[in-house]
Amino acid sequence: MAGTTQSHSAPAVETPLRRFCRDFAESRIALLGLAMFAIVLGAALFAPLLSPQNPYDLNQLDIMDGRQPPMTMSMGGFTFWLGSDDQGRDMLSAIFHGLRTSLGVGAMSAIGALALGAAAGLVAAYFGGRIETLIMRIVDIQLSFPSILVALILLAVLGQGTWKIVVALICVQWAYYARTVRGAALVERRKEYVEAARCLGLGHRRIVFGHILPNCMPPLIVVVTVQVAHAIALEATLSFLGIGLPITEPSLGLLIANGFEYLLSGKYWISFFPGVALLTTIVSINLVGDQLRDVLNPRLQK
Amino acid sequence: MSVFIIRRLMQSGAVLVVMSLIVFFGVYAIGDPIEIFISPEADQIERERAKVALGLDRPVWAQYFAFVEAALGGDLGRSFVFNIPSMTLILQRMPATLELALSALALGIVVGLPLGMYAGYRPNSIGAKAIMAGSILGFSLPTFWVGLMLIMIFAVDLGWLPSTGRGETATWFGMTSSVFTVDGLRHLAMPALNLALFKISLIIRLARAGMRENMLMDYVRFARAKGLPMRRVVMVHVFKNIMIPVVTVVGLELGSTIAFAVVTESIFAWPGMGKLIIDSIQRLDRPVIVAYLCIIVLMFVIINLVVDILYSVLDPRVRLSEARN
User: Of A96, B27, B168, B308, which is the most buried if we count CB atoms within 10 A?
Assistant: First the structure.
């Protein structure tokens, strides 16, 4: 990393955040990923403003517009840039709204899994002993089952619904966070500042969450990016299989499933474009995550 | 060593007990058990009779033991849809899933290994860079969407391959499989490739890393100095060393391949266990769901146990670090 040596010779005003940004910007492809993700996020956040029509307002749909190929004019006078589905729904609008659902579910499950996993990992590392053995054994056992199988078991038991899939995704992912946080916290626990905090008579809770946790953030951020991408892909897969989100909140996976039957008659766009949107989302998050891993890895920092 | 195996056996037993509790309380206690085993069309008298027959008038712990006993005896009720014992139904579908998973793993090795070795042998060539970019794409592409695109290209546009089903099967040496007929192979090609995509990417990475590592070793230099041609050094000496991590990982991946076959089977209407469980969840065919969960958990516990034991045999450090704890 040639740039980091340069950044050390920079004047003293250099803050850690600024150095982080500079290191991150060194990779063109990571910046591209970040830009792609910003576009995806913008499309999701401003879906109602950007969409030519509200895809779930039945009054705006016209059955005569069904299954139109891309670039055709609709009965309502706007263009179906990406075609329309069997009910005359504009695919572009449906994708914007689908991104909203997919990213929302991904973010919610990531936050839940992060909270649960980080707490479990910190408790394991800080207190050690039997608690640690028990928590880490549970983590090991859970990680020995593939994620889709754990989700499948939970959904078979819980049934369907938006909150149930969030719960299932949290249960699938907390173990990755727990393992990462424990690894980082084990190192931090032995450092002097923890000793100092103890000597000051601070409570366990304050030491763990106020002092150790912030120092475990770098590896945690990397795992968050990777796991958000996983959560989005897993949710899309489960929704595609028809056991994920309900039909009232179509995510990208459901849009793709909806186009499956028309694919066989050559109407590719109903499945194809939501898939491209999903792929763009996952690839952009992975590109950002790859660069974060390089920037935040202490072994690569000089 | 035997202490290690006993500990692992106890752990596997504990996992099975916990899973049986989850399945029992999830499917039995939360949902109405009557609805699980009696078809919705049954009338009130029939329901009451079933309640007594199933022992639902007894306390919960007694019901749990009855459930475990039934599961151990392989009797978990009859499928509402097919009206045959759910256990039998799943065991009937299992060979198709295993066939698909094993074909995918084989394809992963046959395609991934040479590509990965080439990428490691000439890491700076354009071909190597293309292969690595492809493997990143293989990790990022959602499997189910790739399956749809395969159908679109090879079945709809080109019309080369059939899009659904298992095709004709034949029996050789007591094994019934679609690998033995041309029609079967044509049906198997796309699902196997779809399921193999992730494995190919994984094996490319492993083989590339192994190749780069081994080419710097002294034994390669020695073999060259001895006058062996490069072809022989790579194909025989280096190849053997690359195979060690590849075989380990492929063995570990068998379980996850069977699990992810759920997705591929649903897309290509492959008549395996995975498609059965998805159909059963959608039709609320609960006896089949319960039986599937029991069988798949047992299968994974056994796979994990075997992998753990093999690991400790191959790498003594694993069991030593365990003993120190």
Answer: A96
Is A233 touching B (CB cutoff 8 A)? yes
Encode burial over A216-253: b for 16+ CB neighbours within 10 A, e otherwise.
bebbbebbbbbbbbbbbbbbbbbbbbbbbbeeebbbbb
Which residues of chain B make contact with A237, given a CB cutoff of 8 A? 142-144, 263
DSSP letters, A48-79, are HHH-SS-TT-GGG--GGGTTPPTTEEPTTSSE
- What chain B holds in terms of domains, given with CATH numbers, is 2-72 (no CATH), 86-324 (1.10.3720.10)
Residue B282 with chain A: CB contacts under 8 Å: 242-243
Show Cβ contacts of residue B254 under 8 Å, excluding neighbours closer than 6 positions: B101, B102, B105, B303
Q: What is the pLDDT of residues B28-68, one digit of tens each?
A: 655 555 665 666 666 777 777 776 766 666 777 777 787 77
Chain A contact for B175 (CB, 8 A cutoff): no
Q: Which residues of A187-207 are buried (b: 16+ CB within 10 A; e: fewer)?
A: ebbeeeebeebeeeeeeeeeb
**B30/A157 Cβ within 8 A:** yes
Give Cβ neighbours of residue B33 (< 8 Å, ≥ 6 apart).
Answer: B54, B56
Partner B, chain A 3-32, Cβ-Cβ below 8 Å:
none
Q: Which among A263, A253, A121 is positioned nearest to A182, based on CA atoms?
A: A121
Q: Which two tokens stand for residue B11?
A: 């752990």
Mark yes or no for CB contact A256/B262 under 8 Å. no
* Å between A21 CA and nearest CA of chain B: 25
CB contact under 8 A, B148 and A263: yes
Q: What is the pLDDT of residues B262-321, one digit of tens each?
A: 999 988 888 888 888 888 887 777 778 888 888 888 888 888 888 778 777 766 666 666
